[in-house]
Amino acid sequence: MVNFDKTICVVGLGYIGLPTASLLGTKGFKVHGVDASKRIVDTINQGRIHIVEPDLDILVKSAVQSGNLSADLEPKQADIFIIAVPTPFKANHEPDLSYVEAATRNIAPFVRPGNLVILESTSPVGTTDGVVATILREAGHDVGGDVHVAHCPERVLPGRILTELVENDRIVGGINDTSTEAAVEFYKSFVRGEVLATDSRTAEMAKLTENSFRDVNIAFANELSLLCDKEGINVWNLISLANRHPRVNILQPGPGVGGHCIAVDPWFIVARNPELARIIRTARIVNDSKPEWVISKVKAAADKFKKPVIGCLGLSFKADVDDLRESPSVEIVHKLKQEGIGKLLVAEPNLTKHPEFDLMPYEEVVAKSDIVLLLVNHRQFRKLKAVDLKEKILIDTRGIIV
Prior knowledge:
By secondary structure, the chain is an alpha/beta fold. The chain has 13 helices and 12 strands. The protein has an 8-stranded mixed β-sheet, sandwiched between helices. A 4-stranded parallel β-sheet has the order 10-9-11-12, sandwiched between helices. Helix 12 links the parallel strand 9 (about 310-315) and strand 10. The N and C termini lie far apart (about 55 Å). The model has no long low-confidence stretch (mean pLDDT about 95).
């Protein structure tokens, strides 16, 4: 039975925190959202959104207008605290937990006996107990006694976040049994998928394992694309044929791997056990090197022109979203600009502006380009046909133009 009397404080109103806060608000919970950005706080309090996600605008507007969702720069007392802040890595691929530490310190004065604190941010093994619980203990709380602490990693797909927050199975791990039980009870109140109970370290490792598995398999596909290019073989045709085997399911290659999860999470495993995580490290190296290979293909094509115009289609890390985090497409276009390889025209239909590149409609980009570099398989770009580009050099890193 859902207990709508419980109040919730969500710290971090980004790609996970805002959908979570607005969903809970429309379910009847009283939700206080917290973000360090005044612009974001003001936007949400006006019932508007600062990120692109299908139907999120409707959900936020509904939650705000109902009075169940409000945003502020500071936390306040609640029954349940959800930490959904970024966990990037530093320049040396070491995890940066400063956001988690700051969020925990910010909520510590507002935590009371009987409260549940949940870390949803993807984190290295040991973060829930070693960082969140430790900071709360240092603040004088009886953690594991009358204050419960747990980890429940998000496992949603951008573009389907609102559906998957409810439908997907969730892994919930507390720092002790009572914390696990409290967190499981909460997630069962709004998740239709199965809520799977474990301990916090296993929950942390499960999320890292899921994304490392995908990264390793994408690396295999990306390595195949290099080999096939060398051999004059169409890699997408090859993969389609190989996948006809009943026990083979090769993923699709691309210009690299981006996003806040797959391009980052495997390093959390490598950082803790570099001597053991050999395949995981190698996969990261393969995927991180793919943008340079794409750039080399563009350079080779550009040598055929005196002053080439290069049309770059897509900046986001995956199709049909505006998310640029760790995007290999941004890296490629940025380096092409840095190295002065021709005149660049850029299209990203999911953005209205970009701080570095002047964006144009993709039709105009294609029409004016000598070289068309397709980096993201947005639905708009799927309308392009190879026959319409016969006067141009096409570099299709997604294999969607036929």
